[in-house]
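Example record

One chain of 306 residues, shown exactly as stored in the release files.
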Amino acid sequence: MEHREKIRIIDVGPRDGFQNVKPLIDTQTKLFIIEGLYQSGIRTMEVTSFVSPKAIPQMADAAEVAKAVIGRYKDLRAIALIPNLKGAQNAWNAGIREAACVISVSEAHNKANINRTVKESLDALEGIREALPDLEVHLDAATAFGCPFAGEVPKEAVLSLIGSAQQLGIRKVTLCDTIGVADPAQVKELLGEVTGRYPGLELTLHFHNTRGMGLANIFAAAEMGIRNFETSVGGLGGCPFAPGADGNTATEDTVHMLEKMGFDTGIDLAKLLGVVEYVDRHIDAPVTGKMLGVTNSACANISGRA
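Predicted structure tokens for this chain:
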């Protein structure tokens, strides 16, 4: 059997995808979509967010979703977003053992997103590490490629945030293109700096598709050796505190591209598209991925290879 290099797809639809949907999605619908993603082969997911329901009402059922997922799927890496110690404690009590803590590289966005300075967020991260030493926490470095308020984000600021997180014992970092302004050249340049300074870091990339460059950026990152990518079913997503941010790069488009390139994602695209179709019919948000439309077109049976 031909050996193909593996790439891990982390679907963030149940968290990042749903948080921007205004009409409340009932819990059973969320769990049905998670089940579909699992059946398609996805084994790492951001399943919910333990934020204040006043800030994001869509996540009010976080504990219920987490407990259901933890109880049902023993081989699923179920990740939750945590904004602070209270969120981390609630996640732990719901059975979550891996969490993403978001800190923006940009001071302006960090203030808008969680009403803290970057230093205050790092202090809070240290408090989480001390209070819950068995909770695996990784850093989501938001606005790593650009900020909706401050514009260009210096590479040194990204490197500084990662260094501060490493001093707290963080070994996994996700670089997030929160508003979808990155380009492939910028991706390669930043990754060169990060991997050069922090060679032992486990890196994940998270691209929004605001300017239609999500797949191109994933391609560039894959060429640089990155093997972990966060994407969202149907391309759902966006940041409530990032004006102009579009949805995430679609999981189905990413799987299609990477499989065509010869990588092994472990995901059944046909089953995944069934989930996308369900999302399209039941979630009040636009599906922006391309593969659902292609499967019903004359292009569906064309391999794309000469």
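Notes: Residues 298-306 have pLDDT under 50 and may be disordered.
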